[in-house]
## 1
Amino acid sequence: MGDKFSNMIRFIYTNRQMPKLSPHIDSSIEGMVPGVINFPILNCDDATTTNWWKIISGEPKRLLNNGGHKEGSANYTYNCKNCELELEESVSFQNNQVHLFNTSNWHSVDNNSGKTRMVFSFLFKSDLKWEDIVKEFS
């Protein structure tokens, strides 16, 4: 089972200064991240929604991160700021809900609480497929 996980972990947060994570798909130094196991840590409740999106039109862009080519960080991010998107699903994860999360689908986060919300993530290796992750871990 340990051979399925990347060498990276992440703490993801939103707060009053940065309440939203715009639609994106996740990447790491290995490439695209097919999924994660998320552990909600702080203020994960109905005041924050995770949204999944479908691209209707437009071309997603692969952009170099502000940090550039730092050791241990993702070198690039995918975003779709100039795309037309359609909301497919919204959910609020709770503090007591550890969950598998498909990070290779377009998703966003809206934190409407005014409080810091934090999630800890174990990343799966980039060469895995989401369907295989679901078979093994659900």
## 2
Amino acid sequence: MVLRAGGFGLPVAALLCAAVLAHASVAEGWTKARIQAAGAEIDLHADGSAAVLLTMQLNILAGYLSQLEIEGLDPDLQLDPRRPAGLTSEQGRLYLPRVKAEQGKPLRLYFPSRRAAPFRGIYRIELYYRTRLVPRS
């Protein structure tokens, strides 16, 4: 079952998107960027786990993006190693950030060098992960 954020009866997806929009922040400095939209597709499993595709539209208005922190995600999230996080430009260029996920801290996407970082433009961010929505009994 795949749920798409924005549909009726999807409180989990709606809360997830609201948390991302409310708490995503870019690194301080001369970079000016905005998260313009966020969405989630959630594949629920009978055992209470879920596979999540979190998407965001990021507009970098000036400078280079060195990092993006996303708060409010599931504390037990496990990144999908087969589907690395990525930012895709409108021209189709893929940027692969490093990802740091520590329990109790915002998820951090970062680029170790300016040369590898996305710059001015609009990007689609995709982040795949697994989580448990219903605790095990």
